[in-house]
């Protein structure tokens, strides 16, 4: 599978706590897959959109993890919005109401992941230090009329390894179309 390059961020909290030398943390698409437990066009699109947004917010410097608010147009339970939020939160450090409250008034992640935001795009990423923001929409996989048929076959109790492999191959081609889209 074609994979986007990993992204490196500086996380001041990780540095303070001695979790990463210089606070530098790198995330890859494989990390997003591990978080979600699967590879799909949504996970791929969320990872790609997050990395591209951070690149636009921090064009000449390493992005700062924990210093970006992520707003999502949809509700957390709506469609795949929750999955998008998990991936964006993994990379940016943004968290909802249950996130890290901070230490001594610093490093808070709680409240940086906001749902049902009044925005036109699917996502908005905003730097806390400058207020600069970037809107993003997820790249979509092209329609595939055959995927539903392949899925039905793969889900049958007596599905053969060949049926399951055919579905998996077609599914990951859809993922690659999102990862490779420029």
Q: Give the overall pLDDT as a whole number.
A: 94
Total beta strands: 6
Q: Give the strand line-up of the largest sheet.
A: 4-3-5-6
Main sheet? 4 strands, mixed
What percent of residues are in strands? Answer: 5-15%
Give the end-to-end Cα distance, rounded to a whole number of Å. 16 Å
Q: Based on Cα principal axes, name the global outline.
A: elongated
In terms of structural class, how would the helical and strand content be classed?
Answer: alpha+beta
What is the H/E string? EHEHHEHEEEHH
Helix run count: 6
Low-confidence segments: none
Structural Rg? 18 Å
- Percent helix range: 40-55%
Structural account:
With 182 residues, this protein is of the alpha+beta class. The protein is 40% helix and 13% strand. It contains 6 helices and 6 strands; from the N terminus they run βαβααβαβββαα. The strands form 2 sheets. Strands 4-3-5-6 form a 4-stranded mixed sheet, with helices on one face. A two-stranded antiparallel ribbon has the order 1-2. β5 and β6 (133-136) form a beta hairpin. α3 packs across α4 (81-92) and α3 (41-57) packs parallel to α6 (161-180). The longest helix is centred in the C-terminal third of the chain and has 20 residues, at 161-180. The radius of gyration is 18 Å and the shape is elongated. The two termini are 16 Å apart.
């Amino acid at each position: 599978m074609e994979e986007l390059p990993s992204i490196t961020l500086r996380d001041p909290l990780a540095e303070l706590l001695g979790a990463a030398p210089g606070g530098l943390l790198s995330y890859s698409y494989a990390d997003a897959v591990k978080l979600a437990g699967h590879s799909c066009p949504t996970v791929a699109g969320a990872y790609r959109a997050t990395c591209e947004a951070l690149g636009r917010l921090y064009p000449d410097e390493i992005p700062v993890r924990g210093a970006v608010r992520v707003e999502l147009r949809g509700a957390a339970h709506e469609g795949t919005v929750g999955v998008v939020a998990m991936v964006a939160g993994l990379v940016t450090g943004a968290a909802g109401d249950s996130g890290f409250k901070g230490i001594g008034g610093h490093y808070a992640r709680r409240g940086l992941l906001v749902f049902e935001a009044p925005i036109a795009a699917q996502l908005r990423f905003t730097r806390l230090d400058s207020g600069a923001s970037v809107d993003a929409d997820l790249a979509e996989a092209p329609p595939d009329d055959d995927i539903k048929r392949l899925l039905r076959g793969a889900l049958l109790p007596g599905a053969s390894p060949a049926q399951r492999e055919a579905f998996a191959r077609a599914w990951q081609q859809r993922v690659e179309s999102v990862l490779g889209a420029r």
